[in-house]
């Protein structure tokens, strides 16, 4: 049985480009489908956040019955693992769902960065979805190099950000390119998944199920 760590943002606000504060959190569909697909396939899933803080769901994302599933795992969301306490040896892979929250905390989290470098160096599956790849920004090696430089990946695109209309503080797609990664954008709002070795990434909420399935395939 595979064991997967699902890392969820604990941020509840994002400071926008104009300095104003925007309520945010994790995107319900991305956490729900990630956990559901993995568990339905028999994987063991643990949820972790920075500091073990209970994560906040972006209220805009509570559609299509996702709230019912979140209620069914509320005990786990109320007491997630602390990233600082996670041992990579206990897991076969890690998956980072999105929402804008990861841009506020996971992108700068040293514990997550350490874990991602260790997962990647061990050849274990590293998955990220939508804005979840913001967490990859934290994966800096001791020599200052970006762990995922040269890797092909999917991420919420600049075009989707423009269409969404939120003035985010930085372009995630552009930041990843600047660090040497190679985003492979699909059509806006299409289910797009990119697999580069052990790295499995999805572009947007529409990619949630397909990303989790590709993570499963990589685990097997």
Automatic annotation (TrEMBL):
Pfam family, one: DJ-1_PfpI
Gene3D superfamilies noted in UniProt: 3.40.50.880
GO molecular function: glyoxalase III activity; peptidase activity
Transmembrane segments: none
InterPro entries xref list: Class_I_gatase-like, DJ-1/PfpI, Prot/Nucl_acid_deglycase
GO CC terms, sorted: cytoplasm
Superkingdom, taxonomy of origin: Bacteria
Keyword annotations of the record: Hydrolase, Lyase, Protease, Stress response
Keyword Protease: yes
Biological process annotations from GO: methylglyoxal catabolic process to D-lactate via S-lactoyl-glutathione; proteolysis
Location of the DJ-1/PfpI domain: 28-139
SUPFAM superfamilies: Class I glutamine amidotransferase-like (SSF52317)
Family statement: Belongs to the peptidase C56 family. HSP31-like subfamily.
PANTHER family: GLUTATHIONE-INDEPENDENT GLYOXALASE HSP31-RELATED, PROTEIN/NUCLEIC ACID DEGLYCASE DJ-1-RELATED
Protein name: Putative intracellular protease/amidase
Organism: Saccharothrix texasensis
């Amino acid at each position: 049985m595979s064991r997967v760590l699902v890392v969820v943002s604990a941020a509840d606000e994002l400071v926008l480009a104009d300095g104003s504060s925007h309520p945010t959190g994790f995107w319900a569909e991305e956490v729900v489908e990630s956990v559901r697909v993995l568990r339905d396939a028999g994987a063991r899933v643990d949820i972790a956040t920075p500091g073990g803080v209970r994560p906040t769901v972006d209220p805009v994302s509570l559609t299509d019955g996702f709230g019912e599933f979140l209620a069914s795992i509320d005990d786990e969301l109320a007491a997630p693992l602390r990233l600082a306490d996670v041992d990579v040896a206990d897991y076969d892979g890690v998956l980072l769902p999105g929402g804008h929250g990861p841009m506020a905390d996971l992108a700068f989290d040293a514990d997550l960065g350490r874990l991602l470098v260790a997962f990647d160096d061990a050849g274990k599956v590293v998955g990220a979805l939508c804005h979840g790849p913001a967490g990859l920004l934290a994966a800096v090696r001791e020599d200052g190099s970006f762990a995922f430089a040269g890797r092909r990946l999917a991420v919420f695109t600049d075009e989707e950000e423009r269409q969404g209309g939120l003035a985010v503080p930085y372009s995630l797609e552009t930041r990843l390119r600047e660090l040497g990664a190679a985003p492979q954008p699909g059509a806006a709002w299409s289910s797009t998944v990119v697999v580069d070795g052990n790295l499995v990434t999805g572009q947007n909420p529409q990619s949630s199920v397909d990303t989790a399935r590709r993570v499963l395939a990589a685990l097997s």
